[in-house]
Amino acid sequence: MAANPDVNNPARPGPPLWLLLELTYRCPLHCVFCYNPTDFARSGAELCTDDWIRVLREARALGAVQLGLSGGEPLTRDDLEPIVAEAHRLGFYSNLITSGVGLTDKRLDALKSSGLDHIQLSFQDSTQKMNDFLSSTRTFELKSAVAALIKKYDYPMVLNVVLHRHNIDHVEEILEMALRFGADYVELANTQYYGWAWHNREQLLPSREQLQRAEQVLQRFRERIGQKMRIFFVVPDYFERRPKACMNGLGSIFLTITPDGTALPCHAARMLPGLEFPNVRGMGVGEIWYDSASFNHFRGDAWMKEPCRSCPEKTKDFGGCRCQAYLLTGDAANADPVCDLSPYHHLVTDAVARADRPARDDPHPAGAPRLDPGEKPLVFRSERNSTTLFVKQEST
Amino acid sequence: MNQPALSAASRLAVGHGFRLQWEPAQNAHVLLYPEGMIKLNGSAGEILKRCDGAATIADITADLERAFAASDLSEDVMRFVAMAVEKRWLQILT
Question: How far is A63 from chain B (nearest CA, A)?
Fold first, then answer.
């Protein structure tokens, strides 16, 4: 896919077609694979309703059309309904990305009347024990009830399940569960290693064998059910030899606003050093998108180093993911080490080799995973862990 | 989901969960669906915007032939509609 130029002026980037509002970092779940920043506890006050509505209006005027309402858990905001109503009035296609916790019949009724277009419901696993263990909550039954509610209000149902070492062997059961719920789409999204998932990477990365088994199961399942349910399988990029075209290139189509109003070209970009990301409290969305230094920084290819700069594939994959380049190599301008042309590619293959260690994890779905002795424990995403492990650590 | 068979007398509407709208910033009709968007080319947009649940494919074809001073569009329209039904962009009402 090519970059996204302005239809009337190819030298100028196109509009931020995809707007993601991370309305809050508050979340009743504590998922170990969450991509939210581990130091979210230091984040400033959340934007108020009027700020979010102003962001919607300004972004829509630029041409934004797909709206993600996410978090944290967006249902913890009691102004979600007026935000949805304004998005609908403006012509956004609104997607609620939720754990389902807090989605009562009454609330869903109000969201439907406000014009909400779609709900993506996350599940952690097909079994209660694993779901509840991985999210450090008791939510499985509740999520099942919410799935029924989504059908009742005649929404297309998209189930999202993040895959990793501890649930990828349950792909068949997960798909059966989705079929039982009457899901229209299922996203089996292998964990991307940012935020809490990055911290827990060694315990989450599946082995190559696990991945191949899952792909076989998936193929058989697709053959069996045909078009009844669409299944998207997001391959874990650590197992690839070419990087993903992350965000279609930073500053190309995607705009995230974090709970405190910081504007980012991808939801993980705040980690990138040396960039001052603007805040919607002090700058209009148009100025942020077109004129701010941090949004222009990774546009085009002037920032690229070798091997990307002279690579014919740079217009296809834009050098991969800046955040992954930074996390693995310490320099966000390096090629994404997923690429086997990167001199740092061994960092990815080494991680995969470590994941190929004999699986000592509990293979049956009834129990919580056993960790290898000597492994560091999984760290659950929580305000407390954020404060004690990540915020304090850096301030001392 | 069993839909009626497709014929020149079929009436169609935009599929469940999809929304068709004109986007000035893209100078195109787009089809919006859960977490995705299809930017339509001119002819796709012209066909889809006429699928209002009342007009038959024959009506739509005749209207397009009038609007674009063209003839023999029925095969092209039918081919596109069949593809759009397959992709669930369109649903057959009757």
Answer: 5
- Count CB-CB contacts under 10 A for residue A10: 10
Q: Which helix (H) or strand (E) holds B54?
A: strand B52-56
CA distance A301 to A291: 17
Q: Check if B67 contacts A (Cβ < 8 Å).
A: no
- Pair A19, A68: CB distance under 8 Å: yes
Asked whether the beta carbons of residue A63 and residue B26 sit closer than 8 angstroms, the reply is: yes
pLDDT at A360: 52
Give the CB-side neighbour count of residue A105, counting CA atoms within 13 A: 3
pLDDT score of A372 more than 60: no
Asked whether the CA dihedral A343, A198, A269, B24 is positive or negative, the reply is: positive
Q: Which residues share a beta bridge with A19?
A: A67, A255
Tell whether ipTM is more than 0.85.
yes
pTM of the model: 0.90
> A-contacting residues of B 42-61, CB under 8 Å?
none
Q: What is the rounded distance in angstroms from the CA atom of residue A151 to the CA atom of residue A4?
A: 35
Amino acid at A36: N
User: Which one-letter amino acid corresponds to residue B56?
Assistant: T
Mutate to test the interface with B, among A6, A65, A158 (most CBs of B within 10 A): A65
Among candidates A14, A63, A185 on the partner chain, residue whose Cβ is nearest the Cβ of B34: A185
- Closest chain A residue by Cα to residue B34: A118
* A70 vs A22: CA distance, rounded Å: 5
Q: A183 is written with which tokens?
A: 């899901």
Q: Contact A117/B34, CB-based, under 8 Å?
A: yes
CA distance A245 to A242: 9
Q: Do B34 and A68 touch (CB under 8 A)?
A: no
Distance of CA A193 to the CA centre of its chain: 10
| Structure token pair of residue A213 | 């088994």
Can you give the pLDDT of all 94 residues of chain B as single tens digits?
567 889 999 999 999 889 999 999 999 999 999 888 999 999 999 999 999 999 999 999 999 999 999 889 999 999 999 999 999 899 999 8
